[in-house]
Specification:
Elements (H helix, E strand, L loop, with lengths): L11 H9 L21 E7 L18 H9 E8 L5 H10 L3 H4 L15 H7 L3 E6 L10 H8 L14 E4 L10 H16 L8 E6 L19 E4 L1 H4 L20 H9 L8 H31 L6 E7 L18 H4 L3 E4 L7 E8 L3 H9 L13 H4 L4 H4 L9 E5 L8 E5 L3 E6 L8 E4 L15 H14 L2 H23 L3 H6 L4 H4 L3 H12 L7
Parallel strand pairs: 1-5, 1-7, 2-9, 3-5, 4-6
Antiparallel strand pairs: 2-8, 7-8, 10-11, 11-12, 12-13
């Protein structure tokens, strides 16, 4: 490995010392707790954006050096089957900060999240005596992201097909000395490190620190129109050298004619139905993995600051992501899909009371963060949450012995209602099965994958196993009345679009023509406006 130079991540000599050192959890002295309560530990949550969870264990971890993720695995636990509750930024984060499924938060797209005054787990921890601090990307409240992003979500039922993203490309910047590629993330990491070294070390009460990173999310592509989209995988030679190029797997693609109709819509709107050489695909994946390596280095700065200040031994550290990144699997990049690359997230936990070198196979999801944080803080967990505390799994306890709600379900739920997908999508993941239902459950064919036999999800076996489909669909409907939710979202989209259109007045035609789909729209603007008018006339809104 090559050193980072001044201003870079932890030096490789320092890294070697850190990785070689034992972490004396048994010697931890937790901050004093209120009388009659068990000691409460500090907690740090580092949440990045778009990191494929399969990179944190074999065989995915053979493609790129992630030393600090490996450090967490060695001194703590890695969850092998952790999932987002909605594979897009804001709805996923709304689930993580609320502990509720997406159909309960009604975070239907990247514009629609939690209300600003929603009581999060961090709010409760602060109320119960924790010193709290947040840095970096939050993105769980309403009102963010581009106009294109929300209009594309609202109009997904319109009878047209338009490219909404730039073609995925790579961009190599700087030289082997260029370490801090994603400067905004590094600035936020520096702020969190400074807070640990200057503030946390002097606290007498436990603390909860959150760091949100934008990496390894792709970068903006200026040629792509309004607010650019984000289809550029950008890194420097320094990080690209951390990638084992020969280990990169070229994903298999179905032919366009054989694709599931929702997958075809996604691939087309993401500008991925054109020709790509194997070299192009391999480069996109290599650059993505290099961006993951830079993300890992930021996690390392936090772990190193905790160790240097003596706080690591009394702090629970959690690392996760809002969703994954397809990186050209299934002829797509980005997320918005229930395939593993998009929906499978990293989840690693280490700290006092956490058994070391655990690989936990239970299915879990991001709604479990909320009750876990409250459990760490000794705060009673509300019974109406969608998630379950991870602490029993981390401590190797039988969950029905310690949870008044009984054992956690044997499934997790993920759902998606936003852009680049033309039907509300619901995924139920169990032991080896992944069941994906769409819309009303009838108008779009479901998918069923046996992940034990088909980890790349290339063969839909829904027709082959109708009994399994019926069983899983029954469970899904017991959790969420998904035909009703899908209908509600359709009407919500129409209502929001009408309100937006009316707000533009005479500027409507010019504004809608120049969103991210401008390259296609401007070829036949009247055709696409007529398609929207036809859609608006089709059904009555919910009053």
């Amino acid at each position: 490995m090559r050193g980072g130079g001044a201003g870079g991540p932890l030096s490789w000599a320092g890294l070697a010392l850190l990785l070689a050192a034992a972490v004396p959890w048994a010697a931890a002295r937790p901050r004093p707790a209120a009388s009659g309560r068990r000691p409460r530990h500090s907690v740090v949550l580092v949440a990045c954006d778009s990191l494929d969870g399969r990179l944190t264990f074999y065989p995915g971890n053979q493609t790129v050096e992630l030393p600090f993720i490996n450090f967490m695995k060695r001194h703590g636990a890695v969850f092998l089957n952790a999932y987002t509750n909605s594979p897009i930024c804001c709805p996923s984060r709304a689930a993580m900060w609320s502990g509720l499924f997406t159909h309960l938060t009604e975070s239907w797209n990247n514009f629609k999240g939690l209300d600003p005054d929603y009581v999060t787990w961090m709010d409760l921890m602060e109320k119960h005596g924790y010193q709290t601090q947040k840095y970096g990307k939050l993105d769980y409240t309403s009102g963010h992201h581009s106009v294109s992003n929300r209009v594309e979500a609202w109009t997904r039922d319109v009878d047209f097909l338009l490219r909404q993203e730039g073609r995925p490309v790579v961009n190599l910047t700087g030289d082997r000395r260029h370490v801090r590629v994603m400067e905004a993330d590094w600035r936020n990491t520096d702020k969190a490190v400074a807070w640990i070294r200057e503030e946390a070390i002097n606290l007498t009460q436990p603390f909860a620190l959150y760091l949100g990173l934008n990496l390894p999310h792709p970068y903006p592509s200026p040629y792509a129109g309004e607010n650019f989209g984000s289809s550029t995988f950008l890194t420097s030679p320094y990080w690209l050298e951390k990638v084992m190029y020969e280990a990169i797997k070229i994903p298999k693609w179905s032919s366009l004619s054989e694709m599931h109709p929702v997958d075809y819509y996604s691939s087309y709107t993401k500008n991925c139905t054109g020709q790509f050489t194997k070299q192009e695909v391999k480069n996109i994946r290599a650059f993505y993995y290099a961006m993951c390596a830079e993300t890992d280095a930021m996690l390392g700065e936090i772990i190193s600051a905790l160790r240097d200040t003596g706080l690591l031994k009394e702090t629970i550290v959690i690392f996760t992501s809002d969703h994954g990144e397809l990186a050209m699997e299934h002829r797509q990049f980005y997320k918005m899909s229930m395939y593993e690359g998009s929906s499978h997230v990293p989840l690693l936990v280490m700290g006092p009371g956490i058994k070391e070198q655990q690989q936990i196979s239970n299915v879990v999801s991001l709604v479990d963060i909320y009750p876990t944080m409250l459990d760490i803080a000794g705060i009673p967990v509300p019974q109406n949450l969608s998630g379950y505390s991870l602490i029993p799994l981390l401590q190797g306890k039988a969950e029905d012995e310690v949870s008044p709600r009984g054992p956690r379900p044997s499934w997790v739920l993920s759902e998606f209602h936003g852009c680049n997908v033309n039907a509300s999508t619901y995924m139920l993941r169990t032991d080896k099965w992944k069941y994906i239902a769409y819309s009303d459950g009838h108008s779009v064919l479901p998918q069923l994958f046996d992940l034990s036999a088909d980890p790349d999800e290339l063969t839909n076996v829904a027709v082959k196993f109708p009994v399994i489909v019926n069983s899983l669909d029954k469970i899904l409907r017991s959790v969420v009345n998904y035909p009703k939710v899908s209908s509600y979202v359709q009407d919500y989209n129409k209502k929001q679009f009408i309100s937006w259109k009316q707000s533009l007045g005479q500027n409507y035609s010019a504004v809608i023509a120049n969103l991210r789909w401008h390259q296609d729209w401007l070829k036949e603007p009247k055709k696409y406006e007529n398609a929207i008018d036809e859609w608006l006339s089709q059904r009555e809104l919910i009053k």
